[in-house]
Amino acid sequence: MLQIDDVTVRYGDNAAVDHVSLDLAPGQVLAVLGPSGCGKSTLLRAIAGLEPITSGSISWDGADLSGVATHRRGFALMFQDGQLFAHLTVARNVAYALRLRRTPSARVAERVRELLDLVGLAGYDDRLPGTLSGGERQRVALARALAVEPRLILLDEPLSALDASLRERLAGELREILHAAGTTALLVTHDHEEAFALADGLAVMRAGRVVQQGAIDEVWREPVDEDTALFLGYARVLRDEAARRVLDAAALPPAHAVALRRSALVVDDAGPLRAVVESARVTPDVVRLVVGVEGVGTVDAVAPLGARVALGDEVSLRVDVTRLAVPPITAAP
Amino acid sequence: MTTVVGRGGRAAPVAGPQVKRILALLLLAAGPVLVLGVLFVLPVSGMLAEGFVVDGRFSPGAVLDVLARPRVRRVAWFTVWTSGVATLLAVALGLPAAYALHRLALPGRSAVRAALLVPFVLPTVVVGVAFRQLLGEGGPLGVLRLDGTPVAIVCGLVFFNVAVVVRTVGVAWESLDPRPGQAAAALGATPWQVLRTVTLPALRPAIVGAASIVFLFCATAFGIVLTLGGVRYATVETEIYLLTTTVFDLQAAAALSVLQIVVVVALLALAARLRATPDPTTQRAVSPVRAVRRSDAPVVVATLLVLAAMALPILTLVLGSLSVGDGWGLDNYRALTTAGDDQALLVPVTTALVTSLRTAVDATWMALLVGVSVSLIVTRRSHSVAERRVRSTLDGFFMLPLGVSAVTLGFGFLITLDQPPLDLRDSPLLVPMAQALVALPLVVRTLAPMLGGIDDRQRQAAASLGASPWRTLLTVDLPVVWKPLLAAGGFAFAASLGEFGATSFLARDTDPTLPVVIFRLIGHPGEMNYGMALAASVVLALATAVVVLAVERLRVPGVGAF
């Protein structure tokens, strides 16, 4: 297993990675989620051995990796844009690591066929990377990374270079492929959708530090602070009196703050909160509202499709407790 | 004047907007084409006609006979093998230096990179003198007895061209995306395997491009071969010179010129194919240099050896110019105000220096004027296949002077521009014009990649915000191009300061340039004349070095890269 112990990477005075510790169990897929510039890519490169670490240690199964060159670590790195070798065909790209190890050519051919099957690109052997679409390139890059059964695969925003529909499809495929291959993987991304689609563990990183880590649903349900909540897709964080009112309406104990999803408040004639509709927008699933709630302020709410809600209407709201989170720490505003 | 092209197409009615664009393009190109036609095609074809037309009749048979002569075959073979060997050596020596100077955080590397640009523009005659001083009897390497041998010629050619390889490959290497190499390393490739399977394939266009240009420079080298090889070892270029000036066998000279032009055009076409065209939509990224590790030792040592070998001839030259009798002194430099022993010269060397500087100024503005319009023409985005073809043909056409023998050009000037309406023989602009032509490809190669690197959408954005074509040029093109423009000017200036091939034909005896004077001085017996030649060489080298180092301070990427 991979152990990252108190690792710091400095550029001059600036710590890109600041005392980070992470553990990754065999077969686990861990996502490191954070905004751009939070140091997550630097961490990934440090694990790959492409970035020297200032202090701390990175080890695999107890063996320290400092001084072990990238090519001896046995970690495959998959770049954001695939980084296929443009002068080699798809088959040659996938076979690259096998050829380096002087694998017999019959075995190479067999393995390449297997992998291209796995990523759904059978028959693409002789194509050049330049002729492939973005999604196909990413899948070839994945097949190439998996070719020598790396003990760990490092993924740098593997889906973010793709367009939305392709991203969704490939995310599902990628997850299946990783699980089928039983590979341990570490993925960095700024997109929580991507993290949820692929990973089972989540570490949230901000300004070089890991602020929260755990099972993905755990982190999702209980974001450690307001910023994390907002980054995980919660729409608004209410404080003090506003928070108290909402929690009261949900029959929950009072707290300093509460983070709400956009669907945390639902139009319901029996609901305890009174509100005035400030805007209404129909989406395929629900009607999304922005409402002014007395004593709370402006918040998001939803109404079932077909509900007749118009601007200026007075509505009643109930609180969906599965759609809110109470961050234990309240960050300074 | 440039956006005429861009506008013509869109504003035109549906019927033949492409034809209109091409017509506009041709109209725009008319100026430079005319200049090159009169000052390049006419002289060169005049020179060729001397050979092909006998007694008013076209008889190519005689030319073919010339090519079968044993001496001509020997000369051609000598040219090919010396150039080939010199090219291989220059590439072999240049690659480690390119890596060390462009990818490693070596102390003083920018100074060294700047210094490496100097040999490339150093006047050929100066280098010839320096090598003779180094290898000749009594020189530091005199014991090797290499003076006057083909080895000396190859060494001289390598000296000039290592810098071209370092520049061209180094620039490509530093803008190489490091991530494919890292991806390979993550897949288990050792550093050596990364180099072999990822880096070298990515650099191949730059390496082959540099090699073909270097071969071209070697095969058409003149001053260096003439000073080091004399009559005994002639290349095609010096043979053309001997045949026209000494033997007056114009037919043979023309035959050799044809041979040379054919080979050069083929090589230029090859180089153009291999030259990677910058993708205007991607910014040129320079990857950061890496700290030196112990494993870099072989590369660093190889680079230091190459640098030492490059410095040696120059150092010998400087020391030689300062040695007087048994001691040291500035006597050789003081003698530069005289015309030499035995009246070797008609004017003092200092006068020649002034002539050189004045000529170079004229040549520079001419080269810039033509070079800027050529660059603008060849880099605009084409809207149709036909248009692209026209542009690339023009591009190739304007590169021709790079490889056509300066000697052919010079002699062609003499025999074609001597009667009205084009009687330029007594014009003070004759020499600058020839030198401007020689410098033109350098100017275009410096400017064109910069202009080509501008994303055309920038201009479109400016235009959509209401900028006139002229205004667009000012806001988009000029900020990118002014530094390269200065650099190209400096380059052209340095190149024409040292130009010898064409100038040796065209400069009048009463108005010689410095390289011509140096060549004359080493041809005249007398210790003082030789000392003066050394001193004059140092002065000339210094002048070009100052200009080139100033150019390097502008930090234009890709200057001196092909």
Structure in a nutshell:
The complex is a heterodimer of chains A (about 325) and B (about 550). Chain A has about 325 residues and is of the alpha+beta class.
Write the layout of secondary structure elements.
The complex is a heterodimer of chains A (333) and B (562).
Chain A: E1 2-11, E2 14-24, E3 29-33, H1 40-48, E4 55-60, E5 63-64, H2 70-73, E6 75-78, H3 90-100, H4 105-118, H5 134-146, E7 152-156, H6 164-181, E8 185-189, H7 192-198, E9 201-206, E10 209-215, H8 216-221, H9 226-231, E11 236-239, H10 240-249, E12 257-260, E13 265-267, E14 273-282, E15 286-293, E16 297-304, E17 314-319, E18 324-325
Parallel strand pairs in A: 3-8, 3-9, 6-7, 7-8
Antiparallel strand pairs in A: 1-2, 1-4, 4-5, 9-10, 11-12, 12-18, 13-17, 14-15, 14-17, 15-16
Helix pairs in contact in A: 3-4, 3-5, 4-5
Chain B: H1 3-11, H2 17-52, E1 53-54, E2 57-58, H3 60-67, H4 70-103, H5 109-121, H6 124-135, H7 150-174, H8 179-186, H9 191-219, H10 223-229, H11 236-247, H12 250-274, H13 297-322, E3 323-324, E4 327-328, H14 331-334, H15 349-379, H16 385-399, H17 406-416, E5 418-419, E6 422-423, H18 430-452, H19 456-464, H20 469-498, H21 503-506, H22 514-523, H23 527-553
Antiparallel strand pairs in B: 1-2, 3-4, 5-6
Which features characterize this protein?
heterodimer; A: 333 residues; alpha+beta; Rossmann fold; OB fold (Dihydrolipoamide Acetyltransferase, E2P); 2 domains; 18 strands; B: mainly alpha; two-stranded antiparallel sheet; two-stranded antiparallel ribbon; 6 strands; 2% strand; disordered N terminus; Iron ABC transporter permease (chain B); transport (chain B); transmembrane helix (chain B); MetI-like_sf (chain B)
